[in-house]
Amino acid sequence: MIVTHLNLSEYRNYAVADVAFAPGANLFVGRNGQGKTNLVEALGYLSTLGSHRVSNDQALIRAGADAAVIRARLQHNGRDLLAEVQINRSGANRAQVNRSQIKPRELPRYFSSVLFAPEDLGIVRGDPSARRRFIDQLLVLHTPRLAGVMSDYERTLKQRNSLLKSARSSGLKANQLTTLEIWDDRLVVFGSEIIDERVRLVEALSQPIRDAYASVVGDDHGPSLTPLLSINGVDAEETGAAPTETRAEPGGLSTADLFRSALAARRKSEVERGLTLVGPHRDDILFELNSLPVKGYASHGESWSFALALKLASAELLRRDSSLGDPVLILDDVFAELDSHRRARLASAVSTFEQVLITAAVLDDVPAELAAHTVHIEAGRILDSSAVGAIESERDSV
């Protein structure tokens, strides 16, 4: 899959932007704060319904505007597609494909991208929520129908938490909450599917991440991923989680049975705290290098390489399994963090993807083989070659 054209309206610092893309590598160059990252962020939003920089959609809308619009023309297997999303300051967001309205959560069915940026170091070093967000975004890209399952789970969790808070306020005991069983059933149905799909995805990533890490670093440090599940007694939100078995052995309890048993065991604590303490919203993933946790043990360089390998492995998995083919690979301000040796290795690793979008503040940071199609950004403007020459001449004369 490739993007052939991007149009933005009232997005970030762009009143209007129109950008044409080429197959292969596309490099966007501009000083910090000029708007180059905003372009690739918009494409990332189109496939994940989220920004890699902010958690609130409101920040994506240009100051003084009521809505921002992202439109992208896509091409896959000779088929052209127009995907659009309108981000509203008030009211629900809206989406269209070929001018027909769809639910925004259906957009990943039509466009797949994998974005790596310096902020992704938080996946490795940050809270469990960052790792859950990473794996869930990849899950939706890999299996788009799971967006509905996750939405159903979130609604059920919200209702169940409301009931638990109400019980705490009124002083009810755990055995007096008969209606809680209804929400338990729904929580287990949706949550068990999410847990099983996450575990399968982590297993599927195990070899791609070894390959990706070795391709960037040039050595095998044994990168590995292990799910840490609250239904097995590991609450990543409360304790220093340690590796544990991720699912029952054949012939043992199913995920749903383990989930129900864990809910029953934590029922008293849940009523006391007014909070659901078991489920995929309390899980984590343990990242390791050389059999040691990356978080707390790995150097900055190792952590950076692991995070980059996670994204390259994700792209490889989508390339292998997705009906959309190669995802669009986006590298936002990545090369500045790498030495010349790793820059060359990364350039080689991404060269086989159908389309790669790269941002950089300094042109010389990016290997020449990735700079054949270069777009310059200046103060929210897409510059053609004559404009670039004029600006450079003006700077040289100062």
TrEMBL record:
Q: What is its main location?
A: cytoplasm
**UniProt keyword DNA repair present:** yes
Give the UniProt keywords, A-Z: ATP-binding, Cytoplasm, DNA damage, DNA repair, DNA replication, DNA-binding, Nucleotide-binding, SOS response
* Cytoplasm is among the record's keywords: yes
* Residues that bind ATP: G30, R31, N32, G33, Q34, G35, K36, T37
Q: Per the UniProt entry, what are the Gene Ontology biological process annotations, in alphabetical order?
A: DNA replication; DNA synthesis involved in DNA repair; double-strand break repair; SOS response
Please list the residue ranges annotated as the RecF/RecN/SMC N-terminal domain: 3-360
Outline what the protein does: The RecF protein is involved in DNA metabolism; it is required for DNA replication and normal SOS inducibility. RecF binds preferentially to single-stranded, linear DNA. It also seems to bind ATP.
| Family, similarity comment | Belongs to the RecF family.
Q: What is this protein called?
A: DNA replication and repair protein RecF
Source organism of the structure? Mycetocola zhujimingii
